[in-house]
Amino acid sequence: MMLFTVIPLDDVLEGMEEAPVPTVVMSIGGVTLELEPGENFQAKVVRVISTDPSHYLNSSYQPGSIVHWT
Questions:
Q1: Other residues' Cβ atoms within 10 Å of the Cβ of residue 13
Q2: Is the distance from CB of 55 to CB of 62 less than 8 angstroms?
Q3: Residue 64 region by backbone torsions, left for phi larger than 0, else alpha for psi between -120 and 50, else beta
Q4: Out of 9, 31, 43, 50, which could bridge 35 as a Cys pair, Cβ 3.0 to 4.6 Å?
Q5: Domain that holds residue 51
Q6: How many structural domains are present in the chain?
Q7: What is the pTM of this model?
Q8: Which pLDDT belongs to residue 46?
């Protein structure tokens, strides 16, 4: 694989040896989300998985947001 970039190689490969954070896919409020589980029924949104554009505009489901479920 060839990689042509002006970014230093050390910056490009940073974090390659680290294990990925485990995620789960759940449906909350009718929106399918990829979540990084936390404590006390909380999770951080990693990405929105949807074909409905209005789901991406909902600020409650922005990546990095904390969602709660029961």
A1: 10
A2: no
A3: left
A4: 43
A5: 21-68
A6: 1
A7: 0.72
A8: 95
Cα–Cα dist 65/60, whole Å:
7
Q: Report the pLDDT value the prediction gives residue 64, as an integer from 0 to 100.
A: 94
Is 15 within a domain? no
Phi-psi region of 18 (alpha: psi -120 to 50; beta: other; left: phi over 0): beta
DSSP characters over the chain: -----SS-HHHHSTTTTSPPPP-EEEEETTEEEEEEE-STTEEEEEEEE-S-HHHHH-GGGSTT-EEE--
21-40 per-position pLDDT tens digit = 899 999 988 999 999 999 99
Residue 10 lies in a domain: no
Residue 3 is encoded by which pair of tokens? 């990689």
Is residue 40 in a domain? yes
For the segment 40-70, what is each residue's pLDDT rounded down to a tens digit? 989 999 999 999 999 999 999 999 999 987 6
